[in-house]
Amino acid sequence: METREQRNERHKKAMQRKKQHVDERIAAAVIDKGLLLVLTGNGKGKSSSAFGMVARSVGHGLRCGVVQFIKGQWVCGEHLLFSSHPLVEFYVMNTGFTWDTQDREGDIAAAEKTWAHAEQLLRNPEVKVVVLDELTYMLTYGYLDHTKVLDALKQRPTDQHVIVTGRNANDQLIAIADTVSEINDVKHAFNAGVRVQSGIDY
Ligand code: ATP
Ligand code: MG
Fold this sequence. Notes:
By secondary structure, this protein is an alpha/beta fold. It is built from eight helices and six strands, in the order αβαβαβααβααβαβ. The chain has two domains: 1-30; 32-192, Rossmann fold. Helix content is 45%, strand content 14%. The protein is globular and about 75 Å long. The protein binds adenosine-5'-triphosphate and magnesium ion (MG). Magnesium ion (MG) is lined by residues 46-47, 134, 165.
């Protein structure tokens, strides 16, 4: 049977091999560039992750822009925190959820108006991080033109990071993205009758 010393020695060797492998991969990653991140899927954590990156960026003194394409029922903590922050420009689409408004023409007009803010941010090299929260729905519903959106993303400043959130990200968007995470809905408290909780859900 393996002694305690042998077990510890085997563990040490395995960790050394792992460290060498990780160090080699870190040494090989030498590119700096503005990233396009897409956070999609049916699970919870897309927008909150995007705002986590805004918090990190602001911590580093980077100028950020946020455009929220769907305005929720509740005043979000991220809006309360960041909208008055000198490093953050924050725009919220001025209609409610699409299933609340039931007004396609009005929604399209609101989407276009909101997109104009996004375009401005995507043209501004001073803005280092842009969040386009719930943008995918504007594409799924056909409220915004795919080509126009993809072109603006492709033509942004080369060092600008963009984070797009929302379910059902389409293949074209995924194709031009650098990092794509699909968050799986394993469980959500809402389905057990728990109402939205401030700080966690909004
Ligand atoms: P969050 O903003 O919490 O990161 P999200 O951006 O991933 O969530 P959205 O689809 O934008 O998810 O939904 C926003 C709201 O709906 C949040 O209050 C969130 O907790 C809730 N929610 C997200 N996913 C689910 C789900 N699978 N079932 C029920 N409610 C959900
Ligand atoms: Mg969201």
